[in-house]
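Ops channel
N.P.: pipeline sanity check, posting one input/output pair.
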């Protein structure tokens, strides 16, 4: 049976000159580590759900991506995290939004999905749920990094001088996500984010919204998005791609490209990774770059930040 895995670390990729070679190497190594973690689950016959969780966990723990440790600050200088996971075989899903104390929100989303009901918990209720589940609880400062602090300072200045609209994707955005097809033919998707820098407290993006930033349905596709969440919600991007495949007969590539084209009309940064029922992988984006990666059927780990794709050895 075919297995497949793809990840993204957000379309808010930094311009190449903004990090040292060592930092770029580390960011790529963390993408490769995420792929290896997810692939290890799939290769031993594990579920797509467990694979996407394993892959996202690595990126939540990495300083390089806007999710978990390294998440964006909101306008109050705090972190409010959103995450979700979906099982394409049952359409079960779990999601949390605006949580402040869960070290790995993707695992809390999976625990909530397994509980079955409710599907989405917000703020303190989400944090309390994770605590009852015995998941790691941290102080909000755990998520803070110097880079994100600088992003917040520059967005505050932009706000004052009226140039917030001109901020680069890297100053504002980022998200992590994974999509997988397991050996039983089941699809899953997971997404986790700090949202965007200087977002108003209480703002919830597309990442925890099933059908928008995250969607999985067996026989069609699994999708995880990154970019200005408000537009992913308006177009129900994940569900839109599944519907273009299911009802309009488009290929995964045609459907994903059409979704990105729709978003691009609004002059917003947008990207996604998606896997089809046959294991086809696509990773379109319209921004300068997108942290992304996938494993090809021959077991080669592919990682990219901008246009060039690097092979990082066998899985
Ligand atoms: N989609 C995320 C949000 O709107 C941010 C991003 O992916 O850049 O919260």
């Amino acid at each position: 049976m075919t297995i497949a895995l793809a990840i993204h670390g957000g379309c808010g990729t930094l311009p190449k000159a903004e990090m040292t070679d060592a930092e770029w190497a580390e960011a790529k190594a963390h993408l490769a580590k995420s792929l290896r973690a997810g692939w290890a689950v799939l290769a031993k016959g594990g579920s797509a759900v467990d694979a996407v969780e394993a892959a996202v966990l690595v990126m939540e723990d990495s300083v390089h991506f806007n999710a978990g440790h390294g998440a964006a600050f909101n306008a109050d200088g705090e972190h409010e995290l959103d995450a979700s996971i979906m099982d394409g075989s049952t359409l079960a899903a779990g999601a949390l939004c605006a949580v402040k104390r869960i070290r790995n929100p993707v695992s809390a989303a999976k625990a909530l999905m397994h509980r079955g009901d409710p599907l989405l918990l917000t703020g303190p209720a989400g944090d309390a749920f994770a605590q009852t589940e015995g998941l790691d609880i941290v102080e909000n400062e755990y998520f803070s990094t110097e880079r994100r602090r600088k992003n917040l300072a520059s967005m505050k200045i932009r706000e004052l001088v009226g140039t917030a609209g001109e901020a680069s994707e890297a100053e504002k955005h980022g998200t992590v996500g994974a999509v997988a097809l397991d050996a039983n033919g089941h699809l899953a998707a997971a997404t986790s984010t700090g949202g965007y820098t200087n977002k108003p407290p209480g703002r919830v993006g597309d990442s925890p919204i099933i059908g928008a930033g995250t969607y999985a349905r067996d026989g069609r596709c699994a999708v995880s998005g990154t970019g200005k969440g408000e537009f992913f919600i308006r177009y129900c991007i994940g569900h839109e791609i599944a519907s273009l495949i299911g009802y309009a007969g488009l290929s995964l590539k045609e459907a994903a490209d059409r979704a990105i084209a729709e978003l691009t009309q609004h002059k917003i940064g947008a990207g996604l990774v998606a896997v089809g029922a046959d294991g086809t992988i696509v990773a379109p984006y319209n921004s300068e770059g997108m942290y992304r990666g996938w494993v090809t059927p021959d077991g080669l780990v592919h990682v990219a930040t901008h246009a060039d794709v690097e092979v990082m050895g066998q899985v």
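N.P.: looks fine end to end. The domain at 4-314 is CATH 3.60.20.30 (Glutamine Phosphoribosylpyrophosphate, subunit 1, domain 1).
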